[in-house]
Amino acid sequence: xxxxxxxxxxxxxxxxxxxxxxxxxxxxxxxxxxxxxxxxxxxxxxxxxxxxxxxxxxxxxxxxxxxxxxxxxxxxxxxxxxxxxxxxxxxxxxxxxxxxxxxxxxxxxxxxxxxxxxxxxxxxxxxxxxxxxxxxxxxxxxxxxxxxxxxxxxxxxxxxxxxxxxxxxxxxxxxxxxxxxxxxxxxxxxxxxxxxxxxxxxxxxxxxxxxxxxxxxxxxxxxxxxxxxxxxxxxxxxxxxxxxxxxxxxxxxxxxxxxxxxxxxxxxxxxxxxxxxxxxxxxxxxxxxxxxxxxxxxxxxxxxxxxxxxxxxxxxxxxxxxxxxxxxxxxxxxxxxxxxxxxxxxxxxxxxxxxxxxxxxxxxxxxxxxxxxxxxxxxxxxxxxxxx
Length: 388
Ligand code: SF4
Prior knowledge:
The chain has helices at residues 30-47, 72-85, 105-114, 128-133, 140-153, 168-180, 198-204, 213-228, 248-254, 286-294, 307-318, 327-333, 336-342, 345-353, 360-363, 371-375, 377-385; strands at 4-10, 12-13, 25-26, 56-64, 87-98, 118-124, 157-163, 185-190, 233-236, 239-241, 259-262, 267-272, 276-282, 299-304, 325-326, 366-367. By secondary structure, it is of the alpha/beta class.
C-alpha cells in the first residue's frame, strides 16, 4: 500500500486578506484557537477509520488559514500522535505554513523542536507599499525579520510571493532577497480576483486593474529566468526549487497519490479495493464541523470516483508538473481502457501538431505540456477527457 500524505487544515487567520478566497476566517481569539487545536487532534483520530490500516506516512502538512497561530505544543501533540500510530518514511517532510506576523525566534524554534522540518512562509513581498496594497498585517521590516528567523532555524523552507500589482523590477528585488536568505523553494502566484472578495469588487468598480495576458507572460518568463540563474528551477506551474527541495507533500497531489485531509473543508483521496479511489470532503464551516465532531460524522461528501473522474483529476493535477505524467503511472491508478481511449494516437497527434504537448509522449510515453500547452491546460484536459 502506498505511503500517505496527511493534511491538517487550520481555519483561522488573524484577519482576512482582501484578495483571499481560501477557506479561512479572520478571527483574533486565543480561546477559540486553543479549542480548535484540540478539535483538530480529535478529527485526526476519528479520520483514521477511513484509511484502511495504512501505516506509512510520507508527509504532514499544516495548512490553512494561518496554522502558525497554533501553539508549538499542540503541533507537537498532533505529531506525537502520528509518530506513535504510524511509521514515518525516513525522509518524512513535515511542513508548517506561517504568516510573518505570527511568530518570533523562540516560537519558531519550538515549532522545529516539535518536529516541523519545513517552513512555508507567506512573505508575499518585502516592501511596505506592496504589503499595504495586499492588506497584509505586517510591514516590510517584519517580513524581513520573519525571513531571517526562518532561515536561521530551517534548512528547508519556502517563500510565497504574489505578483501582478508591482513593477517587474520590484518583483525581482523581492526574489533576489529570497535568494539571499538561502531560499531553495519559491512559490510565485499571479494575483487573481476571486468572486466574493473585496478585491473582486474593486476590480468590478474599476478601482484596480487585472494584469493583461502579455504582461503576465513577461513576468512569468522573467521569474523563471531569474530563479534559474540561481539554480532554482520551475517544476510546477507556480513552484520553483533547487534539486531535491521540491514540496514532497504537494507532489502527492500533483502525482495523484493518496492523501488524508483533516479539519474543516479538508479533502481526501484514498485508494482501496485495488484501483478504487474514494473522494472525501469534510464539512467546511468550522463551527458546523465542530458540532459534527460530536457525532463522529464530519464528512460532507464521501464518494467513489468513476474512472473518467479519476483520469480527469490525474490530468488536471499532473499536467501542472513541468516533467509531465508518465503513462505507466496513469495505468497503475486508472483503468487502462480509459487511459488508452483518452490518450489515443489521434488525440495525441492533434495536440502535438498544435504545439500543445511535447514529443516525449511518442519517444518516452510521458505526457508533457509545451510552454503553449501550459497556458492552455484546461482546454487540453477537456479535449483528452471528452467522449470517454
Ligand atoms: S493569511 Fe493567507 S489564508 Fe489567511 S486570509 Fe491571508 S492569504 Fe488567506
